[in-house]
Amino acid sequence: MISRRRFLQTSTALACTPGLGACTPQNAAPANQNVSLDIQAAQFDLTGHGITTDMVSLSGDAPPPVLRIRQGAEFTAHITNRLKDYTSMHWHGLRLPNEMDGVPYLTQIPMGENDAYTYRFTPQDAGTYWYHPHCMTMDQMARGLTGMLIVEEEEAPGFDDEITLNLRDFRLGRDNQFKDIYTARGAARAGTFGNVLTANWQRQPVYDAAAGGLVRLRILASDTSRIYRLALPEGKGIIIAMDGHPVVEPVPWPTKEAPLILSPGQRVDIALKMPTDEGQEISLLTMSGNRERPLARLRAIGRDIKHAIGDLRALPANPLSIPRLENAEVHEFVFGWSPSGDLPNNGFCGTMGYTFWSINRTPWPGDASGTGPLAVLKHGKSHILRLRNESPNEHPIHLHGLTFLPIRSNKRAVANNWTDTALLLREETLDIALVADNLGDWAFHCHVIEHQKTGLAGYIRVA
Ligand SMILES: [Cu+2]
Question: What is the pLDDT of residue 19?
């Protein structure tokens, strides 16, 4: 456990340095290494026109909070299930001990009503991560249980403000209540989409930040199916991190013509220079073809504080092992339709009642372990996972517990940026490389939850 004295010392390191503008970002709560949270039923006014009931959160009347912790400091989350349904909590993107990964049957027994589980780990990597349930995943995520987990760098990069946006799409009827959150038609295609686009459970919220200041904008796509195509047409700045990790290869600024693709599970960190005139705004849009849909706005307030992107300290690289491609072992995976057969057994974690998808010709239970690993990776060695998509749909493929580098594709130039979730395009073959440096059984699945829950989910063993 981190001592109180050490905690205070690290907290002090974050305090304002007069004249440098390198203060703890205004909108950021202090790090908290020890939380106790109850998964519970919630209600909230998502639309501005009435309360939506039957939501799931960590309090009865608010979105799941942004959790903020320190790199290299032990974190403890004591999670209690106050729902009637079973659940578990997964910490997406973090390289943690296998028994803390929150995957039912594979790494823990799912939590029944009033059961608790204590998750404890020390994050090696700084960056933007998130949490969500991994049992009854479809139901609980669709009803709201997704939140951001921020691991702060040991030295603050020097932003004036920080704004976090958890992008979520909810599927509501005219009465503001949930409609069917999945459909067989959606599960067999690109997923079932919501009709209420939100950021932090609000429609088109506006956030204020100092005019001429530097904002760290952290965006999470935590939807169950929507692939965002983001644009910041009025914005100026740089993309500093993707999926938690500082970018190695530059990522172009997201425009309407060339939006940034953020698929379910992915995150982006943007260093944004605010406009210099009070009242000026920057819009965050998602594009569907040429049609723009507003998600949130940032508004400049006060006098121009005249900070420049160049004043920021570069994000330090996370301590990742670089795979050696020349002697890497290649493992092939085929993602496709499901052969007919029995429904996989999902234990207490909910079934949608049909299968459409498969990995290596087998439909797997989406929230349980199935019959055996898809591959066994030798611990400490470099590996290439060859991901072949036989389907005409896109799949954001997520691997737990390990961080990988996309290295080549038969369809496009890929950026060699570290990630835990890579969007596999239709009929694409994508090679990803990694060092298998974390022992255990790691879930490996599509993050379109309807695909995950209808066959496109398995696990990889590092031994
Ligand atoms: Cu998929």
Answer: 32
